[in-house]
Structure formats: structure tokens, C-alpha cells
């Protein structure tokens, strides 16, 4: 118990004892006075009732009658006094004193208690009554103050001792009870300080309630601060996890899901973590292969990855062993990092298909070229005309290979996103130049170009612009009918290219932008040479510059490509 607390408690106990003592003294003093007054008053009344106030003999008779009465209080002195001029004459005194009173101030205050020293040297209490029949006579009663206060004194002494004893026992009991209850409290406070990482020296078993309350307040503040810090750190961790584009999950050894971020919830189709946390991970997906693979990693404690198909998307799930158990006794768990690899996997597939198709497309002209050259070299073809025709066909196949390689290079450049310097291009003017370059090819089929509307200017890479419209116009000529037409119309930010060709079947329209998809195979039986990359290049260039392309086609009637370019600054 602290020194300050001891002093305060001692003062309070002392004040309590003094208060009890003073209160008891005052109460007993008033009780004693009332008792004394009652005894004197009753004796005066009896004496005054017997005394007839006629003579000294009557006074003697009255006193003797009182004294001889069995109910007379022997401790009360009775006197009958007569006023004689300026003095007083005692006619009767139960204590035997008949001398004139030298000083009797009580006779001047009849009916009131008065305390003074008597003729015998005692401190006494007096009460005087005038005789009703003869006012010159007084009936006086008196009692020693020692007798009057004996009861009060005895009560005060023994009562105070009793109170002190009771209070002492009570204080001892309270101290014992306090220490018995404070000990486990102080132990709990020490544990709290240990949890908080501190153990202040001021917390002791004998500390009082105020000191323990201060310690509780202090450790509470420390723990509250630590909890607040932990909450902030937890919020930071959740903010970081939720900002990840990959899904993140933590699973205990027993399969209970203990953590999932926002991306993870989205992947498995949940809105709130409360729906899945604390539940078995099998709830995430009904796919049996998913549950089997996760269970296998949990059981074996291994790390690895596998692909998981959900909602037409391919996810790569990386399984990592948790170094620490989330709960004691559960063993090591598993952390899952889930990433959408659909584009990557599709790109890999496209690249695989690309190289496979490229090999196939290059193999055919290369084989033909080698065949023609070998026939010439081996002397199989001896006629000059045949040799010339074979050389022309070899050159055509070589040109075809060059076009394929050129388109492959262009497509690769577009895939890599390489930037090209922008130029201000007058659309109508440049498209007419491209059409002019294709005029020999168009002339062979009797195809006529026509241009309508006013042109506009755009900012675009010159090479990209040329490849874009060269592929579209070349296809419009290549897949057109004999003596057909190609109409090119211009309106603000729009170019529309329509041909009167053989068209595209409806079921083949979604695939026309695929690499090496041979458009001619969908347009009839005519074998038209091409790299199969033209429209794939068109699509890449359109997307690169934020434009849009739309195709409409009726098989056997013709095809229309519409290109919309964004406004300047968009």
C-alpha cells in the first residue's frame, strides 16, 4: 500500500472515530441532562405537592414524608427555603444543612437547571420551584454532577472501546479481504503488461486500489494503442492484398479458409469474405479436380502450381507452404496465389498456331520454288520456253514467301507495340495513291475504283496507314468479281470500302481477323493467293490507333468494311 494511501486512510479512520466519539458524547450528554432534569423535576413536583407553605414545621414534615417514601431517589438532595428580606433561610434540607445560603443563584431562576459548586464543595445541578400557595417558599432539588454524568462517562468509555474494537476488527477484515482480492488482480495486471511487452516496477501485490486502478488504466492505454496499431497494420495488409490483381488465399492444414482478398472473392464469385472465411475451402468451387489438387498439396506439404479453368478463363494457381501455422496445433497451411493467365495461355497457343501455320504457308512456296529450280538444274526441262515458265513460277513463289515474311515481320512489330512517328495524313489523297498502285492488278480483273465524299486529315504512322488501306483495297480487288467495282466513300472521321465480290459466309465472319485464316477458303472455290495475315494486320493497326472497324457481307453479293477514326485528342 502506498504511503500516500496509508496517510489518507489513517486520517479518514481517525476522523471517523472522532466523529463517532463526538456524536456519542453529544447524544449521551443530552440524554444525561434529560435524565437529571426528569429526576429533579419529579422530586420537586412531589415535594411541592406535599408542602402546604404554612410553617417551618410543615417544611420539616414535608421533607420527612419525602425521605421516608419508598420511591424517593436517595441521590437527590431536597431543600425547602424561605425568603427573608435580602436573604434566604433553609427550613429543611435532606442532607442536614440548615444554614442560610450565602449564594443561591438558582433561586432567581425557578424552573431552570443550574449547575454550580455547592456548600459541600460538590459540583451539583439545581432545580427550584416556587410554592404555589406561598411564593415566599421555594422547593429546591439538587444532584451531584458526578452522579448525573456517571452513566454517560461509563457509556462513553466502554462504548468507545467497543467501537474502536469493532472498527479495528472491521479494518483488519477489510485489509485482509482487499489483499486476498487484490493479489489475483495484480497478477492479471502483470500478465497484461507482459502481453503489452512491459512490466513496470510500481505494480506490487500490496498496492492499493487506486494504484491498481492507475496500473489498469495504464496497461489498458498501452494495449489499446497496440490494438490500434495492429488494426492499422491489418488495414494496410488488407489494402495491399485487395490492391493485387491476383487472387490470394490462405488455408489451414485442416482445410479451413482463413484469408482471401478481393480478387480471390471475385474469381470464385463471392462478394463478402464473411461468406467463406472459417469454412472449408471446397466451398469455393465445385470442380472436383480443384479440390483434389489443393488437398494433395495440403497433405504432402509440397509446393507447386496447376492451371484451373473457371468461367471461360484460365487461372494459374501457385501453391506455397505457409512457414507458420495460423493456429497452434493445426500444422503448416497453404497459401494460394491465383493469376489470370488466359491471355498468356491464348497468346502461347496463338504463337504456336502461328509458327505452325507459318511453317506450313512457307513450306508450300519454298517446295515449289526448289522443285522448279531442281528441274532446271537437273536438265529435266530442256525446252527454253519450259525453263522460262518454271523460272517465272519460282519467282512468283519467292515473291509470295517474301510477302508472307513481310507480313509476319509487320505483325510482330505490331505485337511488340513499337511506336512509329506520327504524320499528318490527308486520308482521301493517300488512299487514292494506294488505289493507283493497285491499278495494274485491278485492270487485269476489270475492277474499277470510285471515290465519294470529302476527305479529312488524321495523325498516324505513314507505314501503318499504308499497310491498313493497302490490305483492305487489295482484298477488295483480289476477292472481287470480274469487271466488279470498289467504292470508297468518305465522311467525317469515317472511311467505307465496299466491293462487289463473292462475299463472306456468315459463319466465317467471326474468324476473318485470325492469323493465317485463309479468307479465300470462305469465299468460294477460286484459289486466290494470300499470306492469311492481311486482316490480322488490319485489326492490330485499328486497335493501335483507337479506331473501330466493322464488316458487313452477303455471300455472293459483296463485302463492306467501315472504319471510324477517333476525333483529334481522344
What sequence of helices (H) and strands (E) makes up the elements? HHEEEEEHHEEHHEEEHHEHHEEHEEHEE
Give the amount of beta strand, in percent.
15-25%
Largest sheet: 5 strands, antiparallel
Strand order of the largest sheet: 2-1-5-4-3
Q: Which blocks of ≥5 consecutive residues have pLDDT under 50?
A: 520-525
Structural commentary:
The chain has about 575 residues and is α+β, with helices and mostly antiparallel strands. It folds into 4 domains: about 240 residues, 2-Layer Sandwich (Beta-Lactamase), CATH 3.30.450.20; about 100 residues, Beta-Lactamase, CATH 3.30.450.20; about 70 residues, Signal transduction histidine kinase, dimerisation/phosphotransfer (DHp) domain (Helix Hairpins); about 140 residues, Heat Shock Protein 90 (2-Layer Sandwich). About 50% of the residues lie in helices and about 20% in strands. It is built from 12 helices and 17 strands. The strands form 4 sheets. A 5-stranded antiparallel β-sheet has the order 2-1-5-4-3. A hairpin with a 5-residue loop joins strand 3 and strand 4. The longest helix has about 50 residues. About 0% of the residues have low confidence.
Amino acid at each position: 500500500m502506498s504511503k500516500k494511501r496509508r496517510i489518507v486512510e489513517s486520517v479518514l479512520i481517525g476522523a471517523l472515530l472522532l466523529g463517532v466519539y463526538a456524536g456519542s458524547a453529544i447524544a449521551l450528554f443530552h440524554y444525561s441532562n434529560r435524565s437529571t432534569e426528569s429526576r429533579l423535576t419529579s422530586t420537586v413536583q412531589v415535594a411541592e405537592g406535599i408542602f402546604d407553605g404554612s410553617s417551618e414545621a410543615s417544611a420539616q414534615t414535608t421533607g420527612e414524608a419525602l425521605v421516608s417514601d419508598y420511591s424517593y431517589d436517595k441521590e437527590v438532595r431536597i431543600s425547602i427555603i424561605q425568603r427573608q428580606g435580602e436573604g434566604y433561610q433553609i427550613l429543611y434540607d435532606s442532607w442536614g444543612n440548615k444554614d442560610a445560603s450565602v449564594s443561591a443563584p438558582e433561586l432567581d431562576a425557578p424552573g431552570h437547571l443550574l449547575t454550580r459548586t455547592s456548600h459541600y464543595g460538590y459540583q451539583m445541578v439545581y432545580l427550584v420551584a416556587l410554592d404555589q400557595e406561598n411564593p415566599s417558599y421555594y422547593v429546591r432539588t439538587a444532584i451531584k454532577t458526578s452522579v448525573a454524568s456517571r452513566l454517560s462517562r461509563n457509556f462513553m468509555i466502554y462504548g468507545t472501546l467497543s467501537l474502536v474494537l469493532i472498527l479495528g476488527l472491521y479494518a483488519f477484515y477489510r485489509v485482509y479481504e482487499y489483499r486476498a482480492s487484490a493479489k489475483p488482480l495484480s497478477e492479471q495486471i502483470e500478465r497484461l503488461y507482459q502481453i503489452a511487452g512491459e512490466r513496470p516496477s510500481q505494480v506490487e501485490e500490496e498496492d492499493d486500489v487506486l494504484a491498481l486502478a492507475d496500473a489498469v488504466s495504464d496497461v489498458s492505454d498501452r494495449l489499446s494503442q497496440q490494438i490500434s496499431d495492429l488494426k492499422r497494420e491489418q488495414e494496410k495488409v488488407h489494402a495491399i492484398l485487395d490492391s493485387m490483381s491476383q487472387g490470394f488465399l490462405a488455408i489451414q492444414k485442416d482445410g479451413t479458409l482463413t484469408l482471401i482478398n478481393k480478387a480471390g472473392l471475385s474469381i470464385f464469385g463471392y462478394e463478402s469474405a464473411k461468406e467463406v472465411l472459417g469454412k472449408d475451402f471446397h466451398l469455393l468451387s465445385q470442380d472436383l479436380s480443384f479440390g483434389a489438387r489443393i488437398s494433395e498439396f495440403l497433405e504432402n506439404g509440397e509446393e507447386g502450381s496447376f492451371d484451373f479453368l473457371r468461367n471461360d478463363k484460365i487461372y494459374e494457381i501457385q501453391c506455397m507452404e505457409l512457414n507458420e501455422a495460423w493456429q497452434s496445433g493445426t500444422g503448416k497451411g497453404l497459401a494460394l496465389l491465383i493469376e489470370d493467365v488466359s491471355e498468356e495461355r491464348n497468346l502461347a497457343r496463338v504463337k504456336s498456331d502461328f509458327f505452325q501455320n507459318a511453317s506450313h504457308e512457307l513450306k508450300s512456296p519454298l517446295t515449289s520454288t526448289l522443285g522448279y529450280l531442281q528441274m532446271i538444274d537437273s536438265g529435266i526441262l530442256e525446252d527454253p520456253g519450259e525453263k522460262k515458265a518454271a523460272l517465272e513460277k519460282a519467282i512468283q513463289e519467292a515473291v509470295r514467301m517474301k510477302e508472307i515474311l513481310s507480313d509476319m515481320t509487320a505483325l510482330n512489330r505490331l505485337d511488340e507495340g513499337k511506336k512509329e512517328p506520327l504524320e499528318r495524313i490527308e486520308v482521301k489523297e493517300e488512299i487514292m495513291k494506294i488505289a493507283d498502285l493497285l491499278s495494274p492488278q485491278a485492270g487485269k480483273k476489270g475492277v474499277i475504283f470510285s471515290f465519294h465524299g470529302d476527305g479529312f486529315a488524321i495523325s498516324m504512322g505513314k507505314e501503318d496507314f499504308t499497310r491498313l488501306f493497302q490490305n483492305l483495297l487489295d482484298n477488295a480487288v483480289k476477292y472481287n468479281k470480274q469487271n466488279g467495282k470498289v467504292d470508297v466513300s468518305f465522311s467525317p472521321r469515317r472511311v467505307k470500302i465496299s466491293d462487289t465480290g463473292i462475299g463472306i459466309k456468315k459463319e466465317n465472319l467471326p474468324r476473318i481477323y485470325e492469323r493465317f485464316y485463309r479468307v479465300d477458303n470462305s469465299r468460294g472455290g477460286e484459289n486466290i493467293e494470300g499470306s492469311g495475315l492481311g486482316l490480322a494486320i488490319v485489326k492490330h493497326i485499328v486497335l493501335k490507333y483507337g479506331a473501330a472497324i466493322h464488316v458487313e457481307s452477303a455471300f455472293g453479293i459483296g463485302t463492306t468494311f467501315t472504319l471510324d477514326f477517333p476525333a483529334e485528342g481522344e
